[in-house]
Structure formats: structure tokens, C-alpha cells
Hints:
This protein is mostly beta strands. The chain contains no helices and 15 strands.
Amino acid sequence: MNRLPRPDPVRPRPGQESAWAYPRPPRIESTDSHIVIRLGGRVIADSKAALRVLETSHPPVYYLPWKAFRSGVLEPAHGRSWCEYKGEAFYVTLRSEPAIAESAGWFYPSPSPAYRELRDHVAVYPGRVDSCEVDGELVTPQPGDYYGGWITSKVVGPFKGEPGSEGW
Length: 168
């Protein structure tokens, strides 16, 4: 595996944040940004009451309340994963006929105490749905299959997930 040295962070301009200024362990923040997720040509989630999880070298991950998703969109999926901070994650498949996005979202039914705010919220991989928007801006997915960060013009990197970034 080819490892890149820890990169020099991009200097944020006014109105931007650096992913390298985010903490580790991650921090949760409420946001009133307008979040819209589309699949199968339809809006499947819409919220102005999301949470952002901010972690060093990662773009924000947005968690929307379950109630922000249209009825019937979320289905249990196979697989689980473990986060050293948040605990055990379970996956969901998103369905908006005829589109199906297998294991495109995840949630923490019993998050660790420091992350209890994430209970009853779902995060979505932006690269597995038609589109995700933050305040009308189309999101670019974080590089790599494992990560679920949402890149907008308001956050600068470089971002973990790029080839060779495993050692950052």
C-alpha cells in the first residue's frame, strides 16, 4: 500500500471551514441547513433539523431524523460496523421505486453515551443516491467506499479517503 505523508491542509477562505480543524474524537453539531436527499428522481428526505458529525480530515457527515425520510424509504439491510467512538452501526437500504440503494445509510440504535444525540437519526452515503444537497448546493461524496462525508464549497481538505490516505 502506498501511503501519502500527512498533507498540508488547504487554507480556508472567509465562510469556509477546514476539515483539519475538526476534532478527534468527533464532535456533533446541530444544523438548521436545509438538507435534501433524492433517489429514483424523488425527494426521499428533507430536513432543517439535521446533525453534523465533524472529525479531523473528514468532510461533515449529516444525520437526519428518521421522520425526515418519506414513509417506506428505509428498510433494514444486512451488515453492521463498529465505530470506536459511536458504537455499533446498523445499515439501511433506501427504496424509491424503481431505484434501490443497498446499504446506502446507517444508524446507531444504541450509540455510546457521548453520541446519544445520534439515536433516531440516519446518515446516508451521498455517492449511493441520486443526489444530496445542503442549502441548495449539490454535495460531492467523500472519496473512498467506506466514508460518508458530504463535501460542499464551505469545507476544504484534503479529505481522508483519497488513495494513500489510510495513514493520516
